[in-house]
Amino acid sequence: xxxTRILWFALCLALLSALLPFCSAAEAPEALRLPIVMYHHIxxxxxxxxxxxxxxxxxxxxxxxxxxxxxxxxxxxNLLDWEAGRFNMPEKPCMITLDDGPRSTMAYAEPLLAKYGxxxxxxxxxxxxxxxxxxxxxxxxxxxxxWEAAREMAERGTVEVICHTWDxxxxxxxxxxxxxxxxxxxxxxxxxxxxxxxxxxxxxxHGVLLAPAIAYPYGAFSRATTSxxxxxxxxxxxxxxxKVNMLDRSEGELLRLGRFNRPHGAAGEKIFRIWEENx
Length: 279
Ligand SMILES: [Zn+2]
Prior knowledge:
Layout: H1 2-27, E1 32-34, E2 36-39, E3 41-43, E4 53-55, H2 56-68, E5 72-73, H3 76-83, E6 93-99, H4 104-115, E7 120-124, H5 126-135, H6 147-156, E8 159-163, H7 185-205, E9 210-215, H8 223-231, E10 236-238, E11 245-247, E12 260-261, H9 270-277
Helix pairs in contact: 2-4, 7-8
The protein binds zinc ion (ZN).
């Protein structure tokens, strides 16, 4: 009798251990699909349209398409809250980012985003905000955001403002804020520290409420960039790798978010079809 009981116990234990991996697999949360689109300038002038400039009508059609296909936009802060378990993502989340801080972000994109109940993320270059604060130019087609315009936009809340470096938006001597060939780790770190410190100091001095994220110019970064960005308090980083993000709250995943550039023209619409194909 004792022997039979032990045998039964052993059998149950074996069955349980065989089933356990399936149970835990079923309970494991599914990865979050987060596609992100990247715009730059929006213009009403057809002569401007191209790889990095879409028309205002095109931008609105994209928003209509996203809404018709059930997408809801999330902000950087929503994403960080989700990562921390404090925010429930909508069924089909996406992010709309607008790089380089042209005035069209505020003049054209912001009202349209608000009209459709969407939000966006504007990555501004500090030295450019400074230039347009100094020269006072405020042409919606030709100028960039001043610090004051960036501050007002961030306060309204439809478009968050994030860092696109102070002055590392060039391809020479380094590609964006990545490490140069042959540059020592300490020299690179010092250059990055100078740039990011200046950005954060000036944004703060001008009262710009930043979301804690950075968009790497040209999507270029090195391993040391990620750790420096983290040390500066950036909790999310946008690259230009064209991929739909599959997020599972793993360490550092928000510091290499992929995005799809949306160029002008019908060909540009194919990025949204890619989002749907992999759904
Ligand atoms: Zn840029």
